[in-house]
């Protein structure tokens, strides 16, 4: 609270210690906004009794003045007591909702954990927002909500068919979108922008902030980066017999800072957005194959990445990329960073942090 007892106006960011979340928090602070991050650190490095490394690094990147306006509250984003405290302490103007489990394979093994945390948690968050008259949300959705599309139906637009999700993780994103649509139907005072990320990769150009997955990375680029620093022996290329340019999977890679800027663009658009639920693709609009990403990373890092051809992963599609026109037209957003930038920024981060943020957690 301010000296005069007035509450600070702020944006509530759930999961703000995560990969996309932390990069978005930097952008919000650099727009001189106040930000409250709530995160249970279940997928983030943590240091007993002090701020988590991701939050410390965000504060190092922005100015001292901007750093003052970053508040961190540890806990579950769906915990009604924690939410009550935040809404009492701050004048929350909007919520950017990143928090959620997101490992495809894990979701197949533990569907109930995914539905409880991702879907039920969101129900409590939306309830608390409603009770406090906060009806502006930017939702972190995913391209995985789209049904597999034959090549002639690409690129994917926001009205492309959704559903037939290949894993519970993807279903949680689709169910949450459906729930939010129904909430908006019932109360048009709500405004919800749902941002469907394609493949976010890369890191902040400072090398201080990046993807710091726990365990073995599921995703391509963090795995490649770990091979480059010697943490993994080689890259397994999952499938080399797809009907694509070189037989390997083609995806729409987008720099994580471009994705972060998509959130601040959406937040600015909210005020002029009349009402309702609207989805936006956050992607480059271009497809790049696994082998093309490997060679782009080798060029950017100067490090050879040994590869081993392996079987396809169940559920992997050949080609997946979007048409990002709606975000350009309505949010004034488009990607500005290239695949080379993604690889360069990722390499700088990985080189400086071979083991991710864990180096910050050593008892000094
Ligand atoms: C990309 C390409 C793989 C790893 C994921 C998930 C989900 C989503 C982000 C949030 C594919 C190939 C990968 C490896 C490989 N997150 N690959 N060797 O599967 O497109 O989608 O994106 O929503 O996590 O939906 O991303 O990075 O796992 O795979 O050959 O070790 O790289 O087959 O062609 P994906 P990915």
Automatic annotation (TrEMBL):
In terms of SUPFAM superfamilies, this protein maps to: NAD(P)-binding Rossmann-fold domains
Family annotation (InterPro entries)? Epimerase_deHydtase, NAD(P)-bd_dom_sf, UDP_G4E
Chemical reaction(s) catalysed = UDP-N-acetyl-alpha-D-glucosamine = UDP-N-acetyl-alpha-D-galactosamine; UDP-alpha-D-glucose = UDP-alpha-D-galactose
Limits of the NAD-dependent epimerase/dehydratase domain = 11-283
Q: Which pathway does it take part in?
A: Carbohydrate metabolism; galactose metabolism
Q: Which cofactor does it need?
A: NAD(+)
Can the keyword NAD be found in this entry's annotation? yes
The domain of life for this entry's organism is Eukaryota
**Is the Amino-acid biosynthesis keyword given for this protein?**
no
Q: Name one Pfam family in it.
A: Epimerase
Quaternary data: Homodimer.
Into which family does the record put it?
Answer: Belongs to the NAD(P)-dependent epimerase/dehydratase family.
Please identify the protein, giving its name as recorded: UDP-glucose 4-epimerase
Q: Which organism is it from?
A: Clavelina lepadiformis (Light-bulb sea squirt)
